[in-house]
Amino acid sequence: MGVIQYHLYSLEKEKKILSRRKGLYKRFYPNLVFGDYQQEILDVLSQETERDLLLFLIQNPSATQKELSEYARISAGTTNWHMKRLIEAGIVRMKREGQFVKYDVNGEKEEVLRLVQSYHPSIWESWADRFADALTEVVPPTSDEKNEAKKKIKKEK
């Protein structure tokens, strides 16, 4: 661990990488590759629950706290805590509609998906499979069409 820290700090002093502390974690990024917003997204993508909530919001805009809690199988209080963190990071926004609070992705959904695809490929694969399965529930294709769709999605990765 000491050798790794030494080299990371050396690279940081040479301004080849940047570090960013969030909570208990310190993450390192290549210098001049990611902006602040992209670093925020990558921080979120490294946390399983927040990542799942964010990806759910991309698929289900204007989701309520109840929908998010049911999807993630966590309590309303825990969902609220995670959503506050996402709002503070500037990735999600909330709006009140009557007695309901609804959440949306703040900014470019495509940017989030691009970062997932590029830096978390295993997550991208599972979400691509879920998306293909969701589409087939709407209009059930023939087995040949289903296999072709999955091949196309995997090819685009």
How many domains?
A: 2
| Main sheet: strands, sense, barrel | 3 strands, antiparallel
Strand content: 15-25%
Number of helices: 8
N to C succession of SSEs? HEEHHEHHEEHHH
C-alpha-based Rg, rounded: 18 Å
Helix/strand/pairing category = alpha+beta
Low-confidence stretches: none
The CATH superfamily name of the largest domain is Winged helix-like DNA-binding domain superfamily/Winged helix DNA-binding domain
Major sheet: arrangement of strands: 3-5-4
What oligomerization state is this entry in? single chain
CATH class of the largest domain: Mainly Alpha
Tell me, what's the shape? globular
The percentage helix is: 55-70%
Overall pLDDT score? 78
CATH architecture of the largest domain: Orthogonal Bundle
At the third CATH level, what is the topology name of the largest domain? Arc Repressor Mutant, subunit A
What does this structure look like?
Helix content is 62%, strand content 17%. The protein is α+β, with helices and mostly antiparallel strands and 157 residues long. The chain folds into 2 domains: 1-33, no CATH class; 34-156, Arc Repressor Mutant, subunit A (Orthogonal Bundle). It has a 3-stranded antiparallel β-sheet with strand order 3-5-4. Helix 2 packs across helix 6 and helix 4 (65-72) packs across helix 5. It starts with a helix and ends with a helix. The mean pLDDT is 78.
